[in-house]
Design a protein that fits this description.
The chain is an alpha+beta fold and about 220 residues long. It has a domain of about 120 residues: Thiol Ester Dehydrase, Chain A. The chain is built from five helices and eight strands. The strands form two sheets. It has a six-stranded antiparallel β-sheet with strand order 3-4-6-7-8-5, with helices on one face. The structure holds tetradecanoyl-COA (MYA). It is a peripheral membrane protein. Its EC number is 3.1.2.2. One of its GO terms (biological process) is fatty acid metabolic process.
């Protein structure tokens, strides 16, 4: 079975993807705003109850037609991957901050995001698991952009100081490749300086090694 088969073949054209992005991208942004509002609201009880009814109505509307349990990674007729369900950068995932990676031709990549209260751990600071989440994606994307994609085998994070909620930059670059293993390093940086450093080993699972070239061709700016 091919990896593409595993991830889900999608017969959609780039134009169809564009139309879906135009429709669901703004919805995702609105839901993100709703999530922030849910967290921080100090509205009157009646207004909260009314908002809840409206949210339930919206969910019922969206569920009138829906897919399975996850959006998955979809390939278009152009051979490009769209990871719109991805928890860090997915265009249709309101949980994603979202991060949009820029990368050099040889792999180093970076992204910036504003992390608000939705990502809080210790008071005023980003949750350590969220920091690891961002680094996992950044390192995995850098391996991908460098042409040696893989699944996270090992991720080691050193938290140097608390990461304040607010603007965050994540950077990553491929250090070296040893056989099927890509060694990647990265950092999380805020205006206070480096907050966390990571080293990761990304491994192409044996059952998809024959698809390495096909996979490496399938990335798209902003996709990981
Ligand atoms: C699928 C391709 C990726 C596409 C997605 C791109 C998205 C990009 C963004 C992603 C961002 C988000 C990313 C996510 O969220 S990925 C989600 C989190 N990660 C997982 O779920 C991975 C689960 N584990 C596996 O799939 C396999 O066990 C892996 C892939 C890890 C190994 O696979 P396989 O079992 O087939 O490998 P092998 O037995 O032939 O061993 C090969 C070599 O590797 C060495 N080794 C083995 N395990 C580990 C380990 N844990 N650490 C260090 N080294 C390890 C081993 O000693 C050997 O070394 P050597 O003897 O050759 O020296």
């Amino acid at each position: 079975m091919s990896l593409i088969g595993d991830f889900g073949v999608d017969p959609m054209t780039p134009e169809q993807f564009d139309a879906e992005a135009a429709l669901f991208g703004p919805l995702t942004d609105s839901v993100r705003t709703l999530m922030e509002a849910t967290l921080m609201s100090e509205a009157e009880a009646d207004d909260v109850a009314r908002a809840r009814a409206l949210v339930d109505e919206a969910a019922a509307l969206l569920n009138t037609r829906r897919g399975g349990i996850a959006l998955g990674t979809r390939w278009g007729t152009d051979g490009i991957r769209r990871s719109w369900g991805n928890a860090v950068m997915g265009l249709r995932n309101p949980v994603a901050p979202p991060l949009e990676f820029t990368h050099d031709d040889d792999g180093p990549s970076w992204a910036e995001a504003e992390l608000g209260g939705l990502y809080e751990g210790p008071p005023g600071l980003v949750h350590g698991g969220v920091v690891a989440l961002l680094l996992d994606q950044a390192l995995g994307s850098a391996a991908f952009y460098a042409g040696s994609p893989g699944m996270t085998g090992t991720l080691t994070v050193r938290y140097r100081q608390g990461t304040k909620l607010g603007p965050v930059r994540v950077e990553a670059a491929l250090d070296r490749v040893e056989g099927v293993k890509s060694f990647v390093v990265g950092t999380v940086i805020t205006p206070d300086g480096v907050c966390a450093e990571a080293e990761g080993i990304f491994i192409l699972p044996r059952e998809v090694r024959h698809l390495a070239g096909e996979l490496a061709q399938s990335f798209h700016p902003g996709e990981g």
